[in-house]
Structures are given as C-alpha cells and as structure tokens.
C-alpha cells in the first residue's frame, strides 16, 4: 500500500512574520481610528445636549462627524497599500 504524501508547510520566513505584524498593527490602528473619534464626538455631543437641553441632536451630529473623520483617516492610512 502506498501512503499519501502531504506537503509539509515550510517554516515562515522573517519576511512573512514581519508582513503579518504590519497587518496586525494596521488593524489595531484602524480600531483606534474608529473608537477615539466616536467616543470624543459622542460624549461631546451628549455634553452639549445636556447643557442646551436638545436631547439627541448633538449626539447624532457628533457621531456623524466621527464617522466621516474615521472614514477619512482610514482612507489616508490604507491608500498606500492599495497603490502597491
């Protein structure tokens, strides 16, 4: 009987592991690019709403501004990877 040979995976090279680390770093950066503006503009909008008694208005405006600024920041950060 003949045994099936399974190709063994080669050990990852230093270049492969550095590429993986770059991607993981980029994913972490993108998380912060989303979370920080959402928290700042969301809580800022809630503070303004409480002061002016305009319940959800500035929270919504703040979250829309946070979404737009996050999208713009992510686009500028990812654009060099798209061109290569």
Write down how many β-strands occur, each being a DSSP E stretch of 2 or more residues.
0
The gyration radius over C-alpha positions equals 22 Å
Largest sheet report: none
What is the H/E order?
HH
Unreliable stretches: none
**Looking at the chains present, what oligomeric state does this protein adopt?**
single chain
**Which structural category fits the helices and strands?**
mainly alpha
Classify the helix fraction into a percent range: over 70%
How many helices in DSSP terms?
2
Distance between the termini: 49 Å
Please state the overall shape, judged from the principal axes of the Cα atoms: elongated
Rounded mean pLDDT score: 86
Beta-strand content estimate: under 5%
Brief summary:
The protein has two helices and no strands.
Describe the structure.
The protein is mainly alpha-helical and 84 residues long. It has a domain at 29-83. The protein contains 2 helices and no strands. Helix 1 runs antiparallel to helix 2. It starts with 13 loop residues before the first helix and ends with a helix.
């Amino acid at each position: 009987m003949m045994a099936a040979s399974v190709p063994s995976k080669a050990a990852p090279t230093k270049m492969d592991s550095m590429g993986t680390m770059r991607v993981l770093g980029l994913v972490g950066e993108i998380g912060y690019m989303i979370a920080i503006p959402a928290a700042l503009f969301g809580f800022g909008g809630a503070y303004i709403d409480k002061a002016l008694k305009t319940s959800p208005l500035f929270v919504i405006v703040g979250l829309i501004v946070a979404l737009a600024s996050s999208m713009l920041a992510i686009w500028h950060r990812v654009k060099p990877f798209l061109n290569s």
